[in-house]
Amino acid sequence: MEQNKSSVIDNIDIEIPLFLEAVFQKYSYDFRDYSKAHVKRRLLHRMSVGRFTSISQMQEKVLRDKAFFIDLLEDLSINVTEMFRDPDFYKSFRENVVPTLKTYPFIKIWHAGCSTGEEVYSLAILLKEEGLLDRCQVYATDFNRKVLEIAKHGIYKTQELDKFQRNYIKSGGKEKLSSYYTLKYGSIKFDQALSKHVVFADHNLVTDHVFAEVNLILCRNVLIYFNRELQNKVINLFHESLIHSGHLCLGSKESLRFTQHEHSFVDIDSKQKIFKKKIG
Amino acid sequence: MNKALVIGTSFGGLEALKTIIPALPADFKLPILVVLHIGDNNNDSFVQYLNGISKLSIKEAEEKDEIKKGYVYFAPPNYHMMVENDETISFSADLKVHHSRPSIDVLFESAAWTYKNRLVGVILTGLNQDGAYGLKIIKDYGGTTLVENPEKAVASIMPKAALTESDVDFVLDLNEISNKLIELSVQDQ
What we know:
The structure holds two protein chains of two kinds. Chain A is α/β, with parallel strands linked by helices.
């Protein structure tokens, strides 16, 4: 039995790279440089939900069934987010990034990996309160079109509203969160004036290129799923996209450690992972 | 020989870890990875305190840390901590498991994938079922499992759940655990 179990597992470690290669060849979505434990956990979950006996069996399905591939995209993209996630970050952002933003006549912002958009609306609220929103252009991107649709509509369930309110207050919010949304049928809908300056677009950090020169990039809790090579590649992409002295904001557990650009940025807030691109 | 030790605990866990970790020697052979449920609070003061009274180096894990002996890695609040097959640490902000992030199950399962039968898993005091499934996976891979005696644990739910889910190798009182771990750290498979 022991023997049996370990041989099944070895097969899985052979099958997963083949599966990811098949997905890449067929659909051009590249998960080959994602963290292996993360991918394995998500694929095993799909395998068990779909009652497959092996990854190879699932590979046959994914090659022939686009709808199944769409489900799989859901599995492999983490869409856990909330309004003002890590409120201390937004607080630091107000104190340390906003003063620089105020010096720009026009501000382009790239929110990469925006998922269902809660953090895009959080940012828009913050920019509005700082009197900056009207001169901002925000590009909010994700590779998952389904979550982009949700983000565009800005409609969220009320079950986490208490947490959102608490986060907003902790983040240094100046108004009441309720002044930014309307409550209807158990959902909240954010004021469309907030997203007037936001373009939601399909962009894949792994396979797509620079699309604009921006003053600020936010990409929080995306790089944690990537291996070192891919992290390096994406940080290069960010470095290329930022103007001199542009800001880069990562997730609280992400860093520039081990990337080629470790020394191309200065720490603005090392705990909240706010960096500024060096000149030259 | 075993290659790593994973520990999971929640309510009462701070005290339990204060008993176990400082009793381990500086040359303890196994790196230690710990999930302690502490809600949204940060680990900083506890990690610092434990580091002050232990011979091993205690730290909050960082993404891509190489897992090395002599160190005890705590999962950061609000992230699942996983072991990659190149023996480095990765994180995920995925959904909570048993209302917990970090989850013990997520750590134990990924550690079992990498270390297979050369892994020791420990469940201590706690108030939910997290860890029971993970400990079973460790056992399925031929690893060694140990649970704190629920009769004497501060909170019995977590150790009891672990004992219900799989056949556990050792059930010990808190003050017996560190000696058993030292024994397991040098024992041939």
